[in-house]
Write a sequence for this structure.
């Protein structure tokens, strides 16, 4: 039985919604760089649907920038 099925809360400070996704802290560091304060549990970050969607958007824009930067 995992933490999400036991009712883990979203790891973003101030958000009390039940988490639906679990990502590694390295992957969620993009959120932290954009101004969110995260609570890390054993190297994992638990996110609700809203914050996971925000994470995906930030990762997509970051990967585009890196792709443009290293394009030869």
């Amino acid at each position: 039985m995992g933490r999400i099925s036991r009712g883990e809360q979203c790891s973003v400070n101030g958000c009390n919604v039940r988490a639906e996704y679990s990502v590694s802290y390295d992957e969620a560091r993009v959120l932290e760089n954009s101004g969110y304060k995260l609570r890390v549990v054993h190297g994992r970050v638990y996110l609700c649907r809203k914050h996971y969607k925000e994470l995906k958007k930030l990762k997509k824009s970051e990967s585009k920038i890196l792709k443009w930067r290293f394009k030869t």
About this structure: DSSP finds two helices and two strands in the chain. The helical segments are 25-33, 49-69. The mean pLDDT is 91. Residues 49-69 form the longest helix (21 residues).
